[in-house]
Amino acid sequence: MKVKVVLHPESEGGFSVAIPALPGCVSCGDTMEEALANVREAAEGMIEVMNDQNPFDAEDRSPRDQVMEIDL
């Protein structure tokens, strides 16, 4: 899966990076490569947690709704 990132050079050195498709998924690093590796690790952890949680309560679903997993 590919996602777009926003890489921002910091005035004091290093880079901050965010993934807009995953609000709150941000990281930083001393080099561009380190920042990208760090945000990749953060995204993987965030997606793992999201997959372990059920974002829909049973009362919010219609009997016709289906919950399934798909490959991206």
Q: How does this model look, in words?
A:
This protein is of the alpha+beta class. It is built from 1 helix and 3 strands. It has one helix at 32-52; strands at residues 6-9, 15-18, 26-29. Strands 1-2-3 form a 3-stranded antiparallel β-sheet, with helices on one face. Strand 1 and strand 2 (15-18) form a beta hairpin. The protein is elongated, with a radius of gyration of 16 Å.
Features:
72 residues, alpha+beta, three-stranded antiparallel beta sheet, 1 helix, 3 strands, elongated
Determine the N-to-C terminus distance: 6 Å
- Compressed to H and E, one letter per element, the order equals EEEH
Share of β-strand residues: 15-25%
Structural class: alpha+beta
Coarse morphology: elongated
Average pLDDT taken over every residue:
84
| Rg over alpha carbons | 16 Å
Strand line-up of the largest beta sheet: 1-2-3
Give the low-confidence spans: none
Fraction of residues in helix: 25-40%
Largest sheet report:
3 strands, antiparallel
Number of strands: 3
| SS summary, helix count | 1
In short:
This protein has about 70 residues and is an alpha+beta fold. It is about 30% helix and about 15% strand.
Walk me through the topology.
Blueprint (H helix, E strand, L loop, with lengths): L5 E4 L5 E4 L7 E4 L2 H21 L20
Antiparallel strand pairs: 1-2, 2-3
